[in-house]
Amino acid sequence: GSDMRLRLESSYSYANYYFPDGRQRIWSIPEDVLPVDVSGVEDLVYLLWQNENKSATVALFQETARLTQFAPAVPISQPRQIVATETAVYVLDMAGERLLDFHPQTGKLQAIFQLPMVTAFTASPDGSQLLFAGKDRLYFWQQPSNSRFIYGGTTLLGPQPHDTAVWQTSTPYGWPITGNFRDLTRRDLQMPGAPRHYRLGVHQGTDFYWANDTPVYAVAAGIVIRTMLDYEQPSQAAFNRRRAQNLELGYTTPDNLDFYRGQQIWVLQENGFVARYAHLGGIAWDVVEGTAVTVGQQIGTVGNSGSPVSVNSETADAHLHFELWLDDIYLGQFLRPIETRELLEQLFFPSNSNYGRFFTNSIFSTPFSYPIRQNLGGRVIFLHFLLYIKPPPSKNAP
Asked: Mean pLDDT throughout 66-84?
């Protein structure tokens, strides 16, 4: 209902359902999955998560129990969003190129929408109206005359943070610390875009937790454009002043944010990206501004510089904070955590990213082991902006 409030705590694998009278329900999510989104209708709650093999699952919960009769059989890949309505549970997958319509009780596939790459969508409570947001326009389901560009705002020039295409590169990348992409943090609070309440700001990088003094390696070749060899540990008073300023302004200023990054190295890569290595415990003696570094070259060590706990300990909360920038935007800005994870895996290990497009060679090539036309009845309707494939009615359908 309109008073439903849901919270998905993706970093610690649980969800909350808050009732208008103050009561709440809490239930655990499997620890080996990546929570993506949550939606609900009345006392029914639908969770969307990604499995370790990159497939995705939609699960139905009532109170805190999972209802196994809701069992979608359609493979889901690159999940983005879920919206539950009275008549349908919609799942946006294939990185925004497809919308699946499931029956809210059984999970039976009711329809498939092929989309022109949308970033988000919403639906009316009864499921009869859909609104899609593309990169530069809105799409109204079954209202082609209302599909329109978004006018009246500021003209955006150059690459935009929400366009994942700007991060595609052929530059070879290596992992910045010991390990590989499989060691990428599973906690969204350690990913770009996560809130940082203590300083009223937003996290702009990815955290790699390893022991203090662990070697840090250049992820790609480039030229060093900033190195803080003369970094000195700030006092507690300095941290207090920065925090007071953040609280007064209501946000973290760029200067304060740079302060919290601690000792840093910035490398301008051959593809135009700038890699920032922060919270360092030390910098290699030969890494100075203007010198070239190669992929895999050790440039520093893991530390905790810039972290508030660094005042009292040189090892507490030690980790590498890694950011990737293009002009004035950072990788992960305005993106869902699942989108940022895909980008990072594509950068660091593209041959194992295991992400593809389903509708590539033909509109009927699908992840199913059978053709859509054969099993969904062949009722194909071409519309203003999308392909809509609806299964034939079934005598046994609820």
From this structure: 97
